[in-house]
Amino acid sequence: MKKLRLSVFFLLVLSIVAGSADRSDASIFPAGTVAPLQQGIAGESIHEAPVVRGLPEMSATPGPMHVQGMQICAAAAVRTEEKAEGDEEAGNVSDPMESLNAPEAEGAEETDVSDDLESDYLPEEGEEQPTVTISDPLEPFNRAMYHFNDKLYFWLLKPVGQAYGKVVPEPARISVRNFFSNLAFPFRFLSCLLQADFRGVATETGRFTVNTIWGIGGFLDASSSRELNIPKQDVDLGQTLGVYGVGHGFYFVWPVFGPSSLRDSADIVGGFFLDPVNYLNPWYTPAAVHGYEAVNETSLTIGDYEALKGAAIDPYVSIRDAFVQYRKKKIDARKVKMEHSGSVETQKK
Amino acid sequence: MIEKILKFTTIVFLILFLISGTAAAGGLFGPPQPLSRKDGGLNTAIGYAHHENKFENGEEYVIRQKQIYSQAAWGASNLWEVYGRIGIADLEIDDAFRSSGSTTSSRLDFEDRENIFGALGAKVFYPFRKTLGIGIFIQGSYFFSDFRDNVSGISNGRFYTTELKVKNLWDIESGIGLQAVGPCGIKLYAGPYVYYSEADVSPSRSIAGLRLAAGEGTIKNRREAGGFAGILVPLGKGFHLNMEGRYSEKFSAGIAVSYTYQNRRP
């Protein structure tokens, strides 16, 4: 009986982790899955800059989640080295970042916008750097949750992910990731719709259609081929609220879900209703599926969280600051895109 | 010379399309030349086929299927390819419950909804000119579950109801195709093929006087050979449209849209 309870608990934990992993970037660095930081955050000072010991070694073939972790690490390294050694060192670090752009930024048709978004803002000498902060009134609780998530990753997800990764070859694991990413289409579709990004809506629909039909149910990502080049929209519900001017609220670390904020917690609620897996029967099937998804994702991103954690004196603060800046960057990028498309429409008229 | 061959191929293609049809359950044969990229790679397709044929077990039955399938293929050098398909297809058998003597039946035809089938195939191509080539293929398919239908009526003055199962429906097909490449990369192909297909029939209760439900047995195709012809049109960006017709005793036709993956190079 105890074993059964334990198993159910683990399955639930895994399901929640996985359930949030693909739908939203806002709440995904729970147990080790580090929230993506789209761009280098050089130039943006934070109130408690973590000390970074070094840049983790870059993998030759990074996957999306792998990329996310490295982005956050690279960003942290850029930030620190800028302070310590100047722009030259920071430039070295930014090279690998060029190949780690978010899928949305890879779209050829959006070159103009993405060029603006991708260029790291480097303040001139003497210029005051913008400060990005978030209120953290629940810090003791958040720190406790951070440690809980940390242990969850190191004690459960990582060992299981490592064993799984040894048995299942990487192409197969990437196919599984593609499948779940394709399944999260309703989430991205609705987010684009709520942002009135109708081009994004069309892109997501086309992407879902192509990948479902010619990608064998989504296991293959035909849309990302050079010929088709239908980029995945980097959107979520928290970002949508941010685009409409809703502030962070306060910082909150969800058990299992990881870093989030009052606003970005909308992803958790939205994800529950928009993830088709949650509608499977019997009741434990979604938990099992999400658990598998979490293990698969972890197997592809092992090392990212460790690199981030090892590079900072206080990983809690590092992750919090990186999270806030990442979310800000993501929302700003979206605003710029919308403004750009709006101005194009106006010019057409 | 090439023009003559093209004309000949076009005529054969049109004749086969206008007169003919047929086939079995595994989907389109496709062009003899594989779609995978020259240096090896994957292509996928979605297809729809309407299939008709004549089966027999003492008496003749026309069977009809509508198939939808998804295909994944791997090949290289534009010379060989292996592929797998998974799809669904329904089944109709005309006059399966036609009664005779004192037996009556509530309906005539056997009908059941879609069941899942799988197919495997391979093809090899040999180009003997820049625009001409010949290929050989083999493919087989199998339905993983039984088709079922119920019928009721009166036999020898007593009411009856019985369920007829069509089990283990499978087929194997092999053929040779001649292919010509026309303008804009359009490929025309045609050729003969041989095939064999069969299924077991099993009524839950044997009813004398009901054709297929009179007892357990096996139905199989009446003829073993036919012809096929098709056209493959490049749609751009790696997509191709394939239309094909087959004929042995009845006409069958299908359409598929395929996508060829581009190999990513570091």
Automatic annotation (TrEMBL), chain A:
One of its GO terms (biological process) is intermembrane phospholipid transfer. Keywords: Lipoprotein, Signal. Residues 80-117 are annotated as: Disordered. Belongs to the MlaA family. It comes from Syntrophus aciditrophicus (strain SB). It holds the Pfam family MlaA. InterPro entries: MlaA. This is Surface lipoprotein. Residues 1-20 form the signal peptide. It comes from the Bacteria. Residues 106-117 have a biased composition (Acidic residues). One of its GO terms (cellular component) is membrane.
TrEMBL record, chain B:
This is Hypothetical exported protein. The lineage of its organism: Bacteria, Pseudomonadati, Thermodesulfobacteriota, Syntrophia, Syntrophales. It comes from the Bacteria.
